[in-house]
Amino acid sequence: MIFLEMAERLRFKKDLAKRVAHLIRNHMRPFHLLAEKEKGRLTARAKRRLLRDVPEYPDLFVVAMADGLAARGPDKDPDEEEKLAEFFRELHEFYRETLRKVERKRLVTGRDLIEIFGLAPGPIFRKLLEAVEEAQVEGRVKTREEALEYIAGIIDTL
User: What are the TM regions of this chain, as residue ranges (predicted)?
Assistant: First the structure.
């Protein structure tokens, strides 16, 4: 990536260079999600994935906004920046109302997967815990017992 080469020449700290490169790699995602929203196809799952993949989403929207402001041409929507700002407000509210609450109240942990289901730590842990979190955010799982039943159902299909 061009930016990483520039950052190295400019002696950026590696951590900062990686964070900025991550934002640059993902800077079009807000536009893609906004397009899906305008078509009525934006899902809560897509929002959660963005927030999971880019926890520094406010910075991501700054980069996306800068890109939008730099764009020109006859196909550019004159209201694009306002739509992007409104989408940011909506996404931030989504985070505050749903994800932040889930982060505070994890129903199942990796230790539960070991002690209750006898699983060995591995890649399946992340998949199971993410599946429970997604079900929790969507309201399909509300209690620890429901989460454990949900996991048992997933394990049965493996």
Answer: none
